[in-house]
Specification:
The complex is a heterodimer of chains A (263) and B (443).
Chain A: E1 2-6, H1 10-23, E2 30-34, E3 45-48, H2 53-67, H3 69-79, H4 93-106, H5 120-142, E4 146-147, E5 153-157, H6 164-174, E6 180-184, E7 189-193, E8 199-203, H7 217-232, H8 241-247
Parallel strand pairs in A: 1-2, 1-3, 5-6
Antiparallel strand pairs in A: 4-5, 6-7, 7-8
Helix pairs in contact in A: 1-2, 2-3, 3-5, 4-5
Chain B: E1 2-3, H1 9-18, E2 51-52, E3 58-59, E4 61-65, E5 86-87, H2 92-104, E6 110-114, H3 121-138, E7 144-148, H4 155-162, E8 167-169, H5 177-183, H6 189-212, E9 224-230, H7 237-251, E10 255-260, H8 279-294, H9 299-302, H10 316-323, E11 330-331, H11 337-341, H12 348-357, H13 365-371, H14 375-378, E12 382-383, H15 396-405, H16 412-416, H17 427-442
Parallel strand pairs in B: 1-5, 4-6, 6-7, 7-8, 8-9, 9-10, 11-12
Antiparallel strand pairs in B: 2-3
Helix pairs in contact in B: 2-3, 3-4, 4-6, 7-8
Classes of the chains: A alpha/beta (263), B alpha/beta (443).
């Protein structure tokens, strides 16, 4: 068995797919694995994949050409998903994506490949993609901006999956005339948007914590108003904390103003 | 009635959101609109929930009344002019400012503006229109707006507001004209249905114009909705869903909302509900509402004059399926989409996925599970390649008792809520119920 160890990123996984395909070891003799989660097996050859943006682009282009834009978006979402390794029942994320693509390329028309949920690899890719999609949709609502002293809107999130590009895209369209910054504390990336232009992603591992705690004078006022509204809109006779935490899971609470003080 | 001058914004917001909370429509769905690059805001068709209040309901819009002063005296409403509650009114500027500042912090998806009747319906509608105008034109707000059409207001004013809003609603309040007469003496079926028809016609004309001129301003693009109060008057479930069906068919409403009655005024003419608001009944009505809108059921199939209320133990779809065992089991690999939709445990999404996935390969029970079919309900009604999941008798009593073991039949949040169900899980209640199913069997 030849095992390709990929970095957990778009370039990492797509380069892994490129190298695996080009290696001509035969699909049965190949496995792809994310490099940080692996338990080594005997009698296998391990090949470490170096992410290469050229190879990655080629794979991306091929997916779009052969399987269409919709499948490409879903595959991307699956790549960005957090592969929950605690449930050891699933094959590795990278391997599932590889096998899904193999199956898709073998069809005359691969545009509907992700509907073939009878195939376990495809079902897993579908599940991963949905997990990213769902979390991104949640955060479109649960994300909160705070206005800093300098007028910039700043937000901290702790997502499981890498959803920041979806969020940045959405808020660039929604708040075109605002300076804003979204900080993904789990993956240490930030999206920065300047009023009137597009956004870009940047490494945020050395973010200055000082700047982001200095809020504008009006900020506290609006937070209070919002919390007041949040309390008075609830109907006492229907109080139901379980339903509440089912709808907005606790892991989102610390990043929202109105629920941060709750348990 | 006391109107305090110089109230702080915080006090006003507290009073006027508290006064708006019994309006259930808080969705921001139905319209897809990109940002325009200049102002602020866009809109996403499925809607976005921003947070969930302590009662577990979604908060999507800044839901407020413009004023809670009111010349009407509707018995169920806490803003009833005979009530001694603190009164407040916003100014259009305050509403705009709150909406804009909340929106840019991503607290909300937009504004839900309703109002008590201040001075006259026309005066109130004019104020609402002014507010929307300022928000859209001066503040360049491009997010979602849901606005109430005030019954009895001039059609011209309602139409003007409709060109600025995404969704409009007129509340039906009570399902029958008699109920309305008894509890809301200042409103009548006519004053409620008139603006509803007006909005419907406006939407239809606008759609025709949009086909010819693409640049025509849009009129209520997310459609109109309404709400009914459940449990304040003695109507049964059959009457209620008949009304809802009529509204969907004749008024092309996007949504009908149901609001479990809370006796806020402790009015002696109204029922006291010792068990709290009728949440389970509300839940069954919403389930049936979905069956009407997306599953091709009609009100007459779900209930009838002889069986006017929903089964408290089973959801309306299971209940229907049990009474139509002759239509089952359904073969997953062959049945058409509409037949699949009628199987308990199969929803719109999973029916869609089944139809698509079976083109690639035959489906088995394990595949159905991955697709999202709820097998603990579906198992009794389907076959995969001619086989049932368990060998079970096609017997109504037997399947019914199996289905009732599924606790989700009465949703967790209602079982767990502080509201005590009227001892549904008593042995007595259950044995009573078994008797009735036996009766049905014989009939």
């Amino acid at each position: 068995m030849h095992i390709f160890l990929c970095e957990d990123s778009i370039d990492g996984i797509f380069t892994g797919i490129y190298d695996a395909w080009a290696s001509r070891y035969g699909h049965k003799n190949i496995k792809l694995c994310i490099n940080d989660t692996i338990t080594y097996e005997l009698f296998s050859e391990y090949i470490t994949v170096t992410p290469d943006s050229e190879k990655s682009k080629k794979v991306g282009r091929t997916i779009i050409a052969r399987l269409g834009m919709e499948v490409y978006q879903d595959i991307l979402q699956a790549v960005l998903a957090h592969d929950d390794k605690k449930k050891n029942e699933h094959p590795d994320k990278a391997d599932c994506i590889y096998r899904t693509l193999l199956y898709g390329f073998s069809l005359a028309d691969g545009h509907r490949i992700l509907q073939a949920l009878g195939n376990p690899y495809i079902a897993r890719v579908f599940e991963l993609s949905r997990s990213t999609g769902n979390e991104a949709h949640h955060l479109l609502g649960f994300l909160r901006f705070q206005e800093l002293e300098n007028g910039v809107l700043f937000s901290t999130i702790h997502p499981k999956n890498q959803v920041i590009s979806v969020l940045a895209e959405h808020f660039t369209d929604r708040l075109p005339q605002e300076h804003f910054m979204i900080y993904d504390a789990t993956h240490q990336i930030a999206a920065i948007h300047k009023a009137g232009s597009g956004y870009f992603l940047t490494d945020a591992s050395n973010l200055n914590p000082d700047v982001i705690t200095r809020l504008s004078p009006a900020e506290k006022e609006y937070q209070k108003l919002w919390c007041g509204f949040f309390d008075s809109i609830a109907i006492e006779a229907r109080k139901n904390p379980k339903l509440q935490s089912q709808n907005i899971p606790k892991r989102f609470w610390k990043d929202t103003v109105e629920l941060a003080s709750g348990k | 009635m006391n109107i305090t001058e110089n109230m702080s914004l915080m006090e006003k917001l507290t009073i006027l959101s508290d006064a708006a909370k019994y309006d259930v429509a808080c969705t921001s769905s139905g319209v897809d609109r990109k940002g325009n690059g200049r102002g602020m805001g866009n809109s996403v068709a499925p809607g976005i929930c921003h947070t969930f209040s302590a009662d577990g309901r979604c908060i999507s819009l800044l839901k407020i009344l413009f004023t809670n002063e009111c010349i009407f005296r509707c018995a169920y409403c806490q803003n009833n002019c005979n009530n001694d509650v603190p009164r407040a009114s916003f100014t259009p500027d305050e509403v705009c400012n709150l909406t804009m500042e909340f929106y840019r912090r991503n607290y909300i998806e937009g504004l839900f503006l309703s109002s008590g009747i201040l001075i006259s319906p026309n005066y109130t509608m004019e104020l609402i229109y002014q507010t929307l105008y300022q928000l859209r034109v001066c503040h360049h707000f491009n997010g979602y707006i849901h606005v109430k059409a005030i019954p009895g207001a001039d059609p011209v004013l309602i139409e003007k507001a409709g060109f600025l809003a995404d969704r409009m609603s007129v509340n039906l309040e009570l399902p029958t004209a008699d109920g309305l007469k008894a509890l809301a003496p200042n409103k009548s079926r006519k004053t409620i249905l008139k603006p509803m028809r007006l909005i419907q016609n406006g939407i239809m004309e606008n759609q025709n114009e949009l086909m010819v001129y693409h640049k025509t301003p849009k009129f209520v693009p997310a459609g109109q909705s309404t709400q009914m109060i459940i449990g304040a008057t003695p109507e049964n479930d059959y009457q209620i869903i008949k009304v809802a069906e009529g509204l969907y068919q004749n008024f092309q409403l996007k949504r009908v909302f149901y609001s479990a009655f809370v006796n806020v005024n402790h009015n002696s003419n109204l029922p006291t509900l010792p068990g709290g608001p009728p949440l389970l009944r509300e839940h069954r009505l919403y389930q049936a509402d979905w069956l009407l809108r997306f599953y091709g059921f009609s009100a007459g199939e779900l209930l009838s004059e002889d069986r006017p209320d929903f089964n408290i133990f089973l959801d309306p779809k299971c209940d229907w399926a049990l009474r139509h065992l002759e239509a089952f089991p359904v073969e997953i690999n062959r049945a058409d989409y509409n037949t699949l939709l009628r199987v308990p445990g199969i929803g719109v999404k999973s029916a869609n996925r089944i139809v698509k996935a079976r083109r690639h390969s035959r489906l088995d029970f394990s595949d159905l599970k991955k697709i999202g079919v709820v097998l603990k309900r579906a198992a009794y009604f389907i076959t995969c390649s001619g086989r049932m999941m368990y060998s079970i008798p096609q017997n109504e009593d037997y399947i019914c008792s199996c289905l009732m073991q599924d606790k989700t039949q009465i949703p967790k949040e209602i079982r767990d809520s502080s509201y005590k169900q009227i001892s549904f899980f008593d042995e007595d209640a259950l044995s009573d119920f078994k008797l009735t199913t036996n009766d049905l069997c014989v009939g």
